[in-house]
Amino acid sequence: MTAPGTARARHRRHAWLLALVLALVALVASGCGGSAATNSTNLQLYNDKAAWKPFYQQMSKLAHQQIGLSITPNGYADEPTYQAFIRSALQTPEQPDLFTWTTGPLLRQLAEKGQLASTSAIWQKAIADGNLPKGLEQYYTVNGQQYCIPENVSYWVMFYNKHIFARDGIAVPSTWKQLMADAATVKGHGTVPFYQTNVLFSFVWFQTLLAGSDPGLYTRLTEGKASYTDPGVVKVMRLWRSMIQDGYMSDPGNKTDPATLLKTGQVAMIPDGTWFDTSMVQAGMKPGTDYGMFVIPAVNPGLARTPVALETGPLCIPDKPADKQADMKFATWWLKSGPQAAWSDSRDDVSANPSVKISDQGLNTLTHQVVGSKYQLLNRYYDAVSPNVLTAALDAFGAFMGNPNSYQSQLATIQRAASGGAGS
Amino acid sequence: MSQQVLVRGTRTPIPPGRRRGRRMRTSGLWAHGMVAPSVLLVAVLLYLPFLWSLYLSFTNYDGSGSPKLAGLANYSQLLSDPVLATTLRNTGLWVVGTLVLPVGLGLLIALLTYNIKGGQWLRLPFLLPYALSGTATAVVWGFVLQDHGVLNSLLATLHLPGGSVSFLQQAPLNTIVMIFAQTWQSIGVNLLLFVIGLQSIPREPIEAARIDGARGWKMFSKIIWPLLRPLTAVVVGLALVAGLKTFDLVWIMTEGGPGRSSETLAVTMYRDAFVADNYGYGAAVAVLLTAMGLVVSLLYLRRQANPRNDVQLAGGGR
């Protein structure tokens, strides 16, 4: 028979244990609660540019001084994770105050679902004040309304190693023929002329060659109005194949940082966005001395205007943020020439504001050059196509680089994705 | 003296009748209460999300707004996907490779280093990589195996073949080298488990077999291997599941490329859901992967639980 005292002691022990377990559960559950309410003098800026944290912090100080608003950057290094987070957050009451996004189908997707606040009034005022070019508006327009504002603008150009050019006695090319002649000279001296990669930016040469051959076909293709098996597209892949087979392209599987490859002279030229300037400076290269950049000549010499790929990254305000007024105030301030000059200088990149003079002379000249009448701006391929087509295309271009003779099957794979079929 | 019953878990004998039933009910309630939070956690974090994924697999959800039903379209698309054969092949390679290499080598090293002087020091180099995460392992081995990486440079310097081989750019070579990278990292846990298993084997059957003249392979196959069965069932079961859900190493080293040639089912699931924003299709792949894991696990565990195996272990009824 059990002693009553022992049973009571056991019951008390059980009660304490159960209370402890319940307390732990309550503690964990409370930790899963929502974040603290946004203070309207500090805005949470979610972004997919974790490496830009120091630049955001500089802008935060400036914004605090000038308009009493600061920003706290919450950066994600992984793009799919970031996009999944933003999509989830927009469906909850805990929306970010500001967040970066992508133009093209992704912007349209959020705008059509009513998850973005309209910024039409900000755009009209900025254009009227000369803080934004009218030509940029189309990339931020969905069904007649503007959404988001340009956080950054970049143009896709060719970066080159000035020492290699000097060594080989070659000048900046102004035609495609000259570019190929320069590449042959560089190769003859034992340096790989062009950089290419099969990860993430595997689309770059496709974009460069197709836009430079037939910008109309390029635009139709990105809008889903042309086929990847179109003879014009096949011709571009054959050109790319010949450049690979002639030894003009770097090993696509080389994971060394491209800035390092250019700095050490392992490649002579890299097609990239002007934001790559930041990486070059961080790698210890001096603009104008160690490297320069030029607009990539069109493949087709008969084109009236040279195509230049434009990349513009939106900064968006969700439809139900904690303080929409503060968000709009920040967005209006962001586009002014003072903040844009600071933002551009911090990253050594161009500004969306055409009145801003950039410290980097080379960039300054280039910016004013490409918005002139001799150039045609086209949306970057990465932003212009839908995610499922982009995913299929990046994989296909990567596979092509490893086996250039497979271009027909790779184009067929991308077209299947574009048609919404299997393999997408 | 009335018959007394010893209730499992208590040291105190209690009289039969109503008091025993009430004590057992109370003890059962406490047990359920203690386990309830964990069960709730697993149900909320595992079962509910799985049911949500199952629902999404019948929709064309793109990650925003509300899912719209699409019937069996995702499954139909999956079965006609030309990449499915490649991903199934790669997943199969991973399952076989994860079984043969980390488990096989773990057992071999455990046997060779068990009960010898300094054995624990000999095991240390195999145990240390297990402390690394899958991501860290993938980054290190990516650096070694990439084009013009450490391995290419070493082979070229030593004038050995392979100096210009693209280990990560050719299929199925890229999958095979990644399996070796995974083996390097996961030998340790299998080795540890097998050493524990060897330690738990009673001395008497070993001594008796030795007296009967059993040595080497005969000792291993007739005595040690059958006695290791309970542990081997666990190790192999874990390796099977790990092989089926391979993701982190492949994603970091090749992202399933080039051209999806090194994709596994788990990579396909992630790519379609989170990269291509095709959550419905990704969910269908997830359901397929789960179904495969369940079938393989059930078949394997059923085989392990076969009573005929227990009779053999007991000496065939002698």
What's the structural blueprint in terms of helices and strands?
The complex is a heterodimer of chains A (about 425) and B (about 325).
Chain A: H1 4-31, E1 42-47, H2 53-67, E2 70-75, H3 79-89, E3 98-100, H4 105-112, H5 120-128, E4 141-142, E5 145-146, E6 149-161, H6 162-168, H7 176-188, E7 192-194, H8 204-213, H9 215-222, H10 231-245, H11 258-263, E8 267-273, H12 276-282, E9 291-294, E10 306-316, H13 324-334, H14 337-347, H15 361-370, E11 375-379, H16 381-384, H17 387-402, H18 407-418
Helix pairs in contact in A: 2-14, 8-9, 8-10, 17-18
Chain B: H1 18-56, H2 73-79, H3 83-113, H4 119-127, H5 134-145, H6 150-157, H7 173-199, H8 203-211, H9 216-227, H10 229-244, H11 248-253, H12 265-275, H13 279-304, H14 307-313
Helix pairs in contact in B: 1-13, 2-13, 3-4, 3-7, 3-10, 5-7, 10-13, 12-13
SS field, number of helical segments of chain A: 18
The gross shape of chain A turns out to be: globular
Number of domains of chain A: 2
Distance linking N and C termini of chain B: 39 Å
Order of helices and strands of chain A: HEHEHEHHEEEHHEHHHHEHEEHHHEHHH
The H-and-E topology of chain B, N to C, reads as HHHHHHHHHHHHHH
> How large is the count of helical segments of chain B?
14
